[in-house]
Amino acid sequence: MRVLFIGDxxxxxxxxxxxxxxPELRERCAPxxxxxxxxxxxxxxxxTEKTAKALFDAGADAITTGNHVYRHREAYEFLDRxxxxxxxxxxxxxNPGRGxxxxxxxxxxxxxxxxxxxxxxxxxxxxxxxxxxxxxxxEADVVVVDFHAEVTSEKVAxxxxxxxxxxxxxGTHTHVPTADARVLPGGTAYISDVxxxxxRTSVLGVKPAQVLExxxxxxxxxFETASEDVWVMGAVVEVNERGLADSIEQVMMxxxxx
Length: 258
Ligand SMILES: [Fe+2]
Ligand SMILES: [Fe+2]
Description:
Bound molecules: fe (ii) ion
Distance between the termini: 31 Å
């Protein structure tokens, strides 16, 4: 089976870009399962029921998130109820939403685990201990992980920690794709960051002039989502009968303008 993972979809431009690109993505990647990180899908930060629905309508089968997941208060009740949306598992247990899910694809039970890095981000528990604990109890044939983390050392370490135990570790959060996609010796597909789905005429999705103003003046500036030159970024993994990866291929394509 083939799993397509798409990096952080930023705002309306990202949502529309993903939808427009999906027919070509399906042709090129032939995915059995499409997982999309939606933590920036609502106005560039956070997720709402409406933007989650837009991602599902665009072709997502499951949605992961990250540190911006609780930006919109009205989404909390939705996160508790949504069976195909996850937030980092190593957040406080009582927080809205769930940290992992099991979905059906190509006749397999696919576990999708969302974790947050502990370096430079706020967590309740170590992502390493958290994922060990989930892997002990999850009932799945194949497991994939979205590791939403800031620092490449922690991400690479997670790849080695999970090598041979999950099909794939997809890094997210930095919005900048890395050139290190590979299958580790134990059979786990790994990439430090798949990148984002949004405007390339931007700083991580935000209009460059606004970020430059903030960085040069150190004054508060209202950030708006950039909309030019939208690209879709992700990675596709071929999963074998043992629940491990045969290959990983990075996906980076301009969204068709329509
Ligand atoms: Fe993000
Ligand atoms: Fe993030």
